Every structure is written in structure tokens, then in C-alpha cells.
């Protein structure tokens, strides 16, 4: 029995959509959309695509052939994902060209050549921007620039292994900006995105078929214990194992070259390359989906804890073990997320204070940015109050952020300026863009006017107190509904 597809994803000309409209209609409502008209000027569009609208494999081999990348074997399942192996881009391209030359007959599920089974390679999660920062292949559309995840990772590590004080390479990802290259027939199994982040995915060339499930229906694709999720929605899915599956209602989208799809938080999706395809995608979160990230961490923590409950009595540091397992499974733990939130709180407060002091708090064009910063602080405060009752963070004895030290830290200063520039850009306040290009931390912070800046943040209560102290002087509306 096939799946039940009812409806398509809305398509909008990105050139005719304002940032506020995108936020109101899609980001805040957590609704998917396809945006057109935003990629014409990308270098990737010219360098990576042949005149016949095919991937320019030769270009990749010549210019980026020595990069080591992850290549999925689309025919082999490994746990909840496809089996992956590391290889050079040049070797991956050679495999793609070989397949083309031997005119492999592919469909979504199987691929065979002269009767012999051939696996379909799919290059995934290539940290292209990190690896080639000088080669500017594309520009992130402004709808997706309020990206706290990548801004943070450009300056800080998300998880440091406290045993070794070394960044754990496996857990600590350098960023969430990726290039994917897949031949026709390659695909990605059903999943929801890392951290329940948003993602955007742009087709530089080729065509993808996406199937989406609204988060309100996600219970339908899990087994009775809510542990295992369907892997491939086009397989024969066992009704006894996944009793809700046949009731799931899917949305569909065929994404063409030049189109960008916005994938909201918690939407499960499966993706098939209908042609040889190159895509660029980012995962990100900000104030609008912060609670999704926190809810996932809480759920995964409870799962990690239940899993080792039977060794609790013989374990010296049970809580520490739960946090280590959480970081290993989910990519960050409570401390990592709380540290992240604390830095963004301080950055938002510094910027709000600066804008209010320099331009006045209620009038003028900069007030849109002030409102955005206030909204961010409201969301950070709300999430911090949900974290208050978590034992792992209660009475935490390690200082997460010492605010004065943060001001002296060039990484924080870079983060702050970048956040400032981002809001100035998305809200089209060019005079402020230049402010944040030329400013230093001492331009932004008037150390004499706030005792709050001497604070140290250990717990969610400290963070809430810090927000309340500074905001009470600036924007009391932030505190109103939290
Ligand atoms: O393009 C693909 O194959 C998968 C992309 C995806 O699932 C995502 O961006 O979340």
C-alpha cells in the first residue's frame, strides 16, 4: 500500500518576500516553503554546473579533489542511517563518472548494472565553507541569516570533553553548512534534523523529491515504544510494527534547480534525487525554535538516563555520565546548550543597550532591531525558566560565563558584532551595519553604567536574574509575558 500524499509545499518568489513576511508566515509558524529567485548570482551556479545543466564533476575533481568527504552507500542501512565511508572527492567523482559511463539503470530503491548490484554513492555533509573560506560559492539568503548555531560555531566549540579538555572531534562539529552531491537515484532516509534545527536546502543543479510529515503526526511513524522510526517510507512498512504509519498524511514537493526549500523544526522528511543533483544546505536555530532544541535535549536526556538507570547506585558520577552520553548521542549536553544560551543572552543585551543608548529606545528605524533583540531575550528567558528545575544545572559550581571576561574575549566580541551586523542587514539598517563593522567591544559596552555586567552566570536562575536586571532598565516589555 502506498503512502497517503495530500498537498504540496507552497512556492513563493523570494525576491518579492520581505524578511518580516518570511518570519510571520513561515519561520514563526514552523511551516515549510519553497523560495525561488534567490540563487541566480551564486558562483556555484556558474562554476559547478555545465552548460547542459549537469553537475560539473570535472570542476570538483580539479579544484577540490583532495578533500576528504563522507560518502553514503544508499543501498546499505546502518542503524538509522545509511552506511558511510570516507573518501577523496576525486575518488567519489570517479565513481559517479563510472556509473554514468556504464549507463546504470537506477530507480529509488535498487540499482543494477549488467545484473550485478552497484551501490549508489551520495556525498553528504561536506563542510565546504569551513574548508574553502576564500572560495565564496554562495551567499546565505537573508531569510536564513539569523543563525545562532553557525555564528556560535564560527567562534566557539559546542562541546568540549571535560575529561581530556580536548575538543571531541566526533561530537564537536565545526559547523552546519554542507554541500551534498548525489547521482540520480541517491536518497536520504526519513529523519528530522539535528537538534530539531531549521534547515534550508538549495538545489544548485538537478531535481529532488521531498516528502514531509507535519510534527503533529510524527507519532505515526514510530513503533509502539516510540523508539524506532520508519527508515524508508516506500518500503513495505509492517503494520504490526508501525501501527500508525498508514494513517500518516504526507506533503510533497519536487524541488527544481534554483529553488530553496525551508524545512521547519521537527518536520520528518525523506528526500530522493530524481537527477544528478548538487545541493547546499544549512541547519540553524535562533529564538524562534530554541524551545524545540531544549525539548529535544530534555527528551534525549531522559532516554539516556533511563537506559543506564540500573547502574545508578554503583556509579560515582551518574549525572556526569548521563551528560556525557547525551553529548555523544545528541551532539551537545545541558551545559553546552546553557553556555550557548548564556553567550547569546549577553550578546543580545549588549546590542540592545547599545542601540537604545545611541538611537533612543522607542522611535526611529532602529526600533525594529531593538524589538527583535527584545523578542530574542524573551525567548531566552522563557527557555532558561524551563531549565531552572533541571537537577544537572541546579547549584552548578562551574561558572558558565563570566561577563567581564567575555567582554575581553575576542571570540565573544566577534560573535557580538556578527549578531549586530546580521540584524542590521536583515532589517535593512545599513547605517548600523557599518557601526558593527568598525566597533570594538568598548564602543558597545559602557562599563560604567551597569553593575549587572559584573555578573557571573552559573545557573539558569543567574541568567534570568541577569536578563531582568539589565532589561528592567531597557525594555520592560520583555519581562511581561514570561
Ligand atoms: O538532500 C538530501 O538528500 C537530504 C537533505 C536533508 O535531509 C536536509 O537538509 O535535512
UniProtKB/TrEMBL annotation:
Domain JmjC: 129-301
InterPro entries reported in the protein's UniProt record: Cupin_8 (IPR041667), JmjC_dom (IPR003347), JMJD6_ArgDemeth/LysHydrox (IPR050910)
One Gene Ontology molecular-function label: 2-oxoglutarate-dependent dioxygenase activity
GO biological process annotation, one example: positive regulation of translational termination
Cellular component terms per the entry's GO annotation: cytoplasm; nucleus
UniProt-listed SUPFAM superfamilies: Clavaminate synthase-like
Pfam families: Cupin_8
Source superkingdom: Eukaryota
Family the UniProt entry places it in: Belongs to the JARID1 histone demethylase family.
Protein name, entry field: JmjC domain-containing protein
Species whose genome carries this gene: Vigna angularis var. angularis
Taxonomic placement: Eukaryota, Viridiplantae, Streptophyta, Embryophyta, Tracheophyta
Amino acid at each position: 500500500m502506498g503512502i497517503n500524499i495530500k498537498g504540496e509545499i507552497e512556492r513563493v518568489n523570494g525576491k518579492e518576500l520581505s524578511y518580516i513576511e518570511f518570519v510571520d508566515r513561515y519561520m514563526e509558524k514552523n511551516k515549510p516553503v519553497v523560495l525561488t529567485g534567490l540563487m541566480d548570482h551564486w558562483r556555484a551556479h556558474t562554476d559547478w554546473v555545465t552548460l547542459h545543466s549537469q553537475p560539473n564533476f570535472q570542476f570538483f575533481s580539479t579544484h577540490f579533489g583532495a578533500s576528504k568527504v563522507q560518502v553514503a552507500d544508499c543501498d546499505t542501512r546502518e542503524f538509522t542511517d545509511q552506511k558511510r565511508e570516507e573518501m577523496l572527492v576525486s575518488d567519489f567523482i570517479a565513481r559517479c563518472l563510472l556509473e554514468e559511463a556504464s549507463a546504470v539503470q537506477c530507480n529509488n530503491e535498487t540499482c543494477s548494472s549488467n545484473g550485478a548490484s552497484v551501490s549508489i554513492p551520495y556525498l553528504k555533509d561536506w563542510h565546504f565553507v569551513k574548508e574553502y573560506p576564500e572560495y565564496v560559492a554562495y551567499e546565505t539568503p537573508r531569510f536564513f541569516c539569523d543563525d545562532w548555531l553557525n555564528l556560535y560555531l564560527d567562534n566557539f566549540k559546542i562541546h568540549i570533553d571535560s575529561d581530556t579538555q580536548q575538543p571531541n572531534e566526533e561530537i564537536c562539529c565545526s559547523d552546519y553548512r554542507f554541500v551534498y552531491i548525489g547521482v540520480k537515484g541517491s536518497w536520504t532516509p526519513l529523519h528530522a534534523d539535528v537538534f530539531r534545527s531549521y534547515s534550508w536546502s538549495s538545489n544548485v543543479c538537478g531535481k529532488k523529491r521531498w516528502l514531509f510529515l507535519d510534527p503533529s503526526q510524527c507519532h505515526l511513524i514510530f513503533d509502539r515504544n516510540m523508539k524506532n522510526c520508519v527508515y524508508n517510507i516506500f518500503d513495505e512498512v509492517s503494520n504490526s510494527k508501525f501501527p500508525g504509519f498508514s494513517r500518516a498524511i504526507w506533503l510533497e514537493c519536487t524541488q527544481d534547480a534554483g529553488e530553496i526549500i525551508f524545512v521547519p523544526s521537527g518536520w520528518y522528511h525523506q528526500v530522493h534525487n530524481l537527477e544528478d543533483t548538487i545541493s547546499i544546505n544549512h541547519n540553524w536555530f535562533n529564538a524562534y525554535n530554541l524551545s524545540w532544541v531544549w525539548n529535544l535535549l530534555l527528551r534525549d536526556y531522559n532516554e539516556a538516563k533511563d537506559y543506564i538507570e540500573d547502574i545508578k547506585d554503583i556509579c560515582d558520577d551518574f549525572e556526569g555520565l548521563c551528560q556525557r552520553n547525551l553529548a555523544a548521542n545528541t551532539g551537545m549536553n545541558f551545559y553546552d546548550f546553557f553556555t550557548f544560551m548564556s553567550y547569546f543572552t549577553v550578546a543580545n543585551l549588549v546590542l540592545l543597550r547599545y542601540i537604545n543608548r545611541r538611537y533612543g529606545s522607542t522611535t526611529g528605524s532602529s526600533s525594529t532591531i531593538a524589538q527583535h533583540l527584545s523578542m530574542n531575550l524573551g525567548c531566552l528567558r522563557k527557555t532558561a525558566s524551563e531549565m531552572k528545575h533541571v537537577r544537572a544545572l541546579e547549584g552548578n559550581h562551574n561558572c558558565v560565563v563570566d561577563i567581564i571576561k567575555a567582554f575581553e574575549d575576542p571570540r565573544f566580541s566577534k560573535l557580538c558584532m556578527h549578531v549586530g551586523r546580521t540584524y542590521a542587514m536583515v532589517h535593512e539598517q545599513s547605517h548600523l551595519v557599518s557601526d558593527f563593522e568598525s566597533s570594538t567591544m568598548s564602543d558597545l559596552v559602557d562599563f560604567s553604567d551597569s553593575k549587572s555586567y559584573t555578573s557571573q552566570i552559573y545557573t539558569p536562575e543567574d541568567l534570568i536574574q541577569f536578563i531582568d536586571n539589565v532589561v528592567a532598565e531597557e525594555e520592560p516589555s520583555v519581562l511581561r509575558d514570561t
